[in-house]
Amino acid sequence: MEAGFAYPPILLKGLPVTMPAEGALCIELKEGIPFLRASLYVQQRIETLLIKNREFGLSESEKEELDRYEEIDDYLSFINRIIRNLYKSE
To answer: Is the pTM of this model over 0.85?
Structure first.
């Protein structure tokens, strides 16, 4: 692994059916370091699912969709930690 960091590979089970093929991610700079985050559209879809879950519950397909978004969030957090650690190690 690069820079002495050992990270286990993360495999996604799939992508949410509502996730757009383009425009799903944004890059934002924090102290000059690029970080990946979900686009406004994806954030709004997640919020819609969370509200619906609290108020009415979700169908099985919506539960799976929310699970896929959660996996992507974990994956982006993982990637951002690697990026941050690489910059800190330099």
So the answer is: no
